[in-house]
Design goal:
Layout: H1 2-35, E1 37-44, E2 48-51, E3 54-59, E4 64-70, E5 74-81, E6 84-85, E7 91-94, E8 101-109, H2 122-126, E9 152-159, H3 162-175, E10 180-185, E11 190-198, H4 201-214, H5 216-219, E12 223-226
Parallel strand pairs: 1-8
Antiparallel strand pairs: 1-3, 2-4, 4-7, 5-6, 5-8, 9-11, 9-12, 10-11
Amino acid sequence: MKSNHLLFLGVIVITGILFSGCSSSEESQKNNRSAGSETITSSTEGNGTIEPSGSININNGGTAAYTITPATGYHVDSVIVDGTSVGAVSTYTFTNITSDHTIRVAFANDHAVGNGDTVTVNKQNTERPLYNSNAPSTSPADTSGSMPQGKFSVQIGAYKMPDNADRIVALAKERFTQHVYLFFDKTDNSYKVLIGDFNIKDDARTFRDQMAQQFPSDYKDAWVRDNSQN
């Protein structure tokens, strides 16, 4: 009888320790969750940096400041925070952080003309109308019959050979509902392909980012064009 009594007490003691340990572990996890940390992930498409880079953990309610620096010959084209453009800013700060976030930066060449070819245009130009960048275009590839009406468009290419430009225009018209424009720019003797009529630059940037995400191999070099600088 005494042996059974001691065994019973031993079971009670061991059980109490196990329950006590479990409770302590659960309490610790609860405290960790309440303290909490959120993850911010930053990235670029190259041609510049963002600091801090990659994924970092920030205490719940904390702040994280980012610095964006383009490489030589490039500028900030757009900064996308949680899928929404915040403009071409050089710094961005997350405050009172209570959830995970992402920040992505795209840079553009200071002298970008999009995808180009290197074939001479002398013969081509004698066989094809010349579209003055300061006058309405009559190109059949121009869906509206005139130059873009909006202040900004997305330029997807500048081509020496008009046949190359025509192929790019045809593909863009299949993929997008925005107006597609083709005109010959006498300032650099190239056929330029533009998409869209945007009055707000951020809207053009957002469209450009959507294009690059959907067709990265075709439009990663596309850039926002200020039509007032024709």
